[in-house]
Amino acid sequence: MKILQEGPLANFLSRLIDLILLNIVWFLCSLPVFTLGASTCAVYEVTMRYAFHGNPAILRTFFEAFRKNFKKATALFLIFLAAGLFLALDLWCALQWNISIKFLIVVVILSVSYFYLAVLSHVFPVLAYFDTGIKESIRKAFFLSMKNGIFTVFIMVMNLLPVFAILLFPSQFGQIIFLYFVLGFSAIALLNSLHLVRLFDPERAEESEQIEERQRQLRNLDKQNTEEK
Q1: pTM score
Q2: Which H or E element spans position 112?
């Protein structure tokens, strides 16, 4: 039992339970659909605190962030929803056209879609961390995503991972959806946050890592002293 009370296994199980709880709360709060932006913003509030080696109270932190950012996050969600539908409609129309510059038009739409997905992948974490206005959140998300380089692609792929999984394994559709709604989104948000905190506040991220390392060394030293006794 001791191994379950302390150590890596206990930490892993505790974090896993937290992520499951966070994911379920996100799913339930996203059911009205228009609240998806606020729910996503609240999830990143929690996962970025984890990324800074914090230990936030899941429900309290989530609902505080949900209420605080509700109006701005909902407005951002509606803006990006409209833009996404517009791009999807443009792409569908372009694919139906039988004109000589069809390929060029499709390439332009896909290029714009890349920037759209890049900004979308960063805008809710930006709002959660910086608590900026709508325009400033979009502007900051754009510049940070362009600065992010290859990691922007990584975050975009992580966010689209469930879609890729369904396309690759259509026969496992039910299992993939179940896993995503139980654990998938919060786990992906945490993986994204581990990099985003370095992008948003590199000094604080480095300082928190140093503190965590010192605490780990002290725990190991205490454990060695206990074993010697």
Answers
A1: 0.88
A2: helix 102-130
